[in-house]
C-alpha cells in the first residue's frame, strides 16, 4: 500500500503468458499515467500486461470505464458458501501455476487499507468493499500493477458469479499467505461490493515506503485504520514475500543472486532469500542487514529503530510462532476493515472447528502432597514419558503415565516389604 511515487516501494509485474511471476507485496508503488482510456494497451498503472490477457477475446477480460468486468459484479449480495470453497481451490491451483502469491496478498491489502475509522458511512469509510476493481482507484499511484492481479482472478470471478469481488480479493490474499507456508487465518466472508466508481475512496489513504518520518507516517496511516503498533509490525512481516523492481517502483536493484533465475520473470530485489516462503526471515534479515542483495526500505528499517516498534520486531525475529499468531490476527482484522457483511455475522468456510492446542507435558504437575519433585525426578519421568510415545507437546493416547506410577509404587512397596 503506498501513496507517492517517491515512496513507491513495490510496483510489481506479472510475467508473460509463458511464465507468471510472483510480484511484490510491498506497501507502495509508482503513480500510473493519466490516460483516460482503460484499455490494456493504454493503462498506465500496468507496467507489463501479459500477452495472455492481451489476446483474450472474452468480453469480460477487460476493464470497462465502470470497472473490471462490471457487468458480472453482484449487487449487494452475500457470497455463496459453496462457491467460496470452490473458488479457494481454484486459487490454490493458480498459485501453483503462476507463483503470484505476493501480488494477491497486496491486492487484498490495498482494497482493505483505504479504511478510515473516523467515517461511519459505508462505503465512504473505505475498506474491503471491492472498489479496487474500478479504473479510478486502480490508477491511484499505490495500486500500479494491480490490474495484473485482477486479470489473474477474473476467470475465477467469471466461474463463480456468486462470490463478490470484495470476498474474492480477501480470499485470494488469505489463501496466498497460507499456501506460502504462513499461518491459518481466521477469515470470514460475505462482504458486499460497492456498485460504481463514484463509491471509490479518494487517493492518498495508503502508506508510502520512503516518507521523511517513517515511524510517524506508518502510525498516521495505520492508526487511521484502527490498528496499533503491534499490528503495524506484524503486518510489515508479510514483506517476507515478493520483490521490488527499480524500473517500475524506484526501489531495489534490477537483479540479485536471489532473483536472477525467477521463478517467473527474473529480476528485482527481494526482502528475503526465499521470497515465496512465508516465515519470519524478514525480521531476521532486516535486523542483521548483512546481505546487500536484500532490500531494506525506510519503512522496514524503522521497525528496529523506533523503540515501540522494536519490541515487536525483536520478538518476531526470535519467535516465528509468536509472529504467525499475531500476523494471523492482524491480517484477519485488516481484511474486515470497513466491510459490510451479508449476513451481518459473516460466512465461515473452513470445515470443522479448530482443534485446541494439546496440553504440554509438565512433570511438576504430577507432584503429590506438598513435596515438589526434584529436577532429577522430573527429567526421569519425562524420559519415561517420551520413551513410551509421549512428547512435551503431545499427550499420550491412553493413561500410560498413571500405569507407570502404579508400577513404580508397587515395586517400591515390594522392595520395602521384602527389605523388612
Automatic annotation (TrEMBL):
It is found in: Plastid, Chloroplast. The chain crosses the membrane at residues 400-419. It catalyses: L-ascorbate + H2O2 = L-dehydroascorbate + 2 H2O. It is an enzyme of class 1 (oxidoreductase). Residues 163-355 form the Plant heme peroxidase family profile domain. Its EC number is 1.11.1.11. One of its GO terms (biological process) is response to reactive oxygen species. Pfam families: peroxidase. One of its GO terms (cellular component) is chloroplast. GO terms for molecular function: heme binding; L-ascorbate peroxidase activity; metal ion binding. The keyword Amino-acid biosynthesis does not apply. Keywords: Calcium, Chloroplast, Heme, Hydrogen peroxide, Iron, Membrane, Metal-binding, Oxidoreductase, Peroxidase, Plastid, Potassium, Transit peptide, Transmembrane, Transmembrane helix. Residues 241-266 are annotated as: Disordered. Its cofactor is heme b. The keyword Plastid applies. Residues 244-260 have a biased composition (Basic and acidic residues). Belongs to the peroxidase family. Ascorbate peroxidase subfamily. Plays a key role in hydrogen peroxide removal. This is L-ascorbate peroxidase. It comes from Morus notabilis. The lineage of its organism: Eukaryota, Viridiplantae, Streptophyta, Embryophyta, Tracheophyta.
Amino acid at each position: 500500500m503506498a501513496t507517492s511515487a517517491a515512496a513507491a516501494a513495490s510496483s510489481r509485474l506479472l510475467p508473460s503468458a509463458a511464465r507468471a511471476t510472483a510480484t511484490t507485496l510491498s506497501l507502495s508503488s509508482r503513480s500510473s499515467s493519466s490516460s483516460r482510456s482503460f484499455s490494456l494497451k493504454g493503462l498506465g498503472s500496468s507496467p507489463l500486461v501479459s500477452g495472455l490477457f492481451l489476446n483474450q477475446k472474452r468480453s469480460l477480460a477487460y476493464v470497462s470505464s465502470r470497472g473490471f468486468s462490471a457487468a458480472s459484479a453482484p449487487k449487494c449480495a452475500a457470497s455463496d458458501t459453496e462457491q467460496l470453497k470452490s473458488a479457494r481451490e481454484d486459487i490454490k491451483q493458480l498459485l501453483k501455476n503462476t507463483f503470484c502469491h505476493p501480488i494477491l496478498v497486496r491486492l487484498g491489502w490495498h482494497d482493505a487499507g483505504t479504511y478510515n475509522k473516523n467515517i461511519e458511512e459505508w462505503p465512504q469509510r473505505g475498506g474491503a468493499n471491492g472498489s479496487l476493481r474500478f479504473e479510478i482507484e486502480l490508477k491511484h499511484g499505490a495500486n500500479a500493477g494491480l490490474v495484473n492481479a485482477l486479470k489473474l482472478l477474473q476467470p475465477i470471478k467469471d466461474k463463480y458469479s456468486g462470490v463478490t469481488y470484495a470476498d474474492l480479493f480477501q480470499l485470494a490474499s488469505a489463501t496466498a499467505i497460507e499456501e506460502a507456508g504462513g499461518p491459518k487465518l481466521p477469515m470470514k466472508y460475505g462482504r458486499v461490493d460497492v456498485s460504481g466508481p463514484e463509491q471509490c475512496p479518494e487517493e492518498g489513504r495508503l502508506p508510502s515506503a520512503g516518507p521523511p518520518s517513517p515511524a510517524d507516517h506508518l502510525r498516521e496511516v495505520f492508526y487511521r485504520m484502527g490498528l496499533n503498533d503491534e499490528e503495524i509490525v506484524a503486518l510489515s512481516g508479510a514483506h517476507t514475500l515478493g520483490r521490488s523492481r527499480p524500473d517500475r517502483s524506484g526501489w531495489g536493484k534490477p537483479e540479485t543472486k536471489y532473483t536472477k533465475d525467477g521463478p517467473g520473470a527474473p529480476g528485482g530485489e527481494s526482502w528475503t532469500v526465499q521470497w515465496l516462503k512465508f516465515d519470519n526471515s524478514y525480521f531476521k534479515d532486516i535486523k542483521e542487514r548483512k546481505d546487500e542483495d536484500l532490500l531494506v526500505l525506510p519503512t522496514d528499517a524503522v521497525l528496529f529503530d523506533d523503540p515501540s516498534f522494536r519490541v515487536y520486531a525483536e520478538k518476531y525475529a526470535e519467535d516465528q510462532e509468536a509472529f504467525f499468531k499475531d500476523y494471523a490476527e492482524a491480517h484477519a482484522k485488516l481484511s474486515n476493515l470497513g466491510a459490510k457483511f451479508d449476513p451481518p455475522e459473516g460466512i465461515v468456510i473452513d470445515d470443522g472447528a479448530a482443534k485446541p492446542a494439546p496440553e504440554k507435558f509438565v512433570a511438576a504437575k504430577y507432584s503429590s502432597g506438598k513435596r515438589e519433585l526434584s529436577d532429577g525426578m522430573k527429567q526421569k519421568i519425562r524420559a519415561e514419558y517420551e520413551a513410551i510415545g509421549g512428547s512435551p507437546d503431545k499427550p499420550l493416547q491412553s493413561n500410560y503415565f498413571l500405569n507407570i506410577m502404579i508400577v513404580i509404587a508397587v515395586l517400591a512397596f515390594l522392595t520395602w516389604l521384602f527389605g523388612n
